[in-house]
Specification:
- The chain has 168 residues and is an all-alpha fold.
- The protein has two domains: 107 residues; 60 residues.
- The protein is 70% helix and 0% strand.
- Helix 1 crosses helix 4, helix 5 packs antiparallel against helix 7 and helix 6 packs antiparallel against helix 7.
- The protein is globular and about 65 Å long.
Length: 168
Amino acid sequence: MNSEKLKSEIIIVFQRNRQTPNTYYDESRFLDYLLNPPTTKNNIKNSFKGVRRYYRFFEDIELTFGICFSLSDQDRFHSIEQFVKKTNERIRKGRGNKQIIQRRLEEKEHYYVELLLTAVLAIIVFFLGIHIITILALIGYGIAIWWIVSSKLRDKRHNKKLNEVINS
């Protein structure tokens, strides 16, 4: 795929994942413009909303082109030109993409955080009984567990779908 066509397709995915599509963005730090107002240089991952948009953009790119970015690729902040080059490189590395997705699928889930939160909640209820503090702790626990587990399930669904795309 030539670079100009690839760049235009990446920009389409970028616009689709932006908070405010079709507004101005700086090509040298285009990922910061996923949010509105844009974050300061390379700080998009310093908020929950920014992290969500950042990783959903990468997931969309992976599914669109049938590629897998490594964790180190996702930790770098690219200009649009560097990102096009990196994406083109990943497209050419079919075997590497298969290895990355295989590793992702074989990764075991560990529920240490969930167990720790459950233990803390049990200790609070044991010592305080049922009352306003335990009810607030239960609400906080529910929100935290929902956020963690839904994120893990979303990643699993994405990886299974990406595996189908890469292997077809």
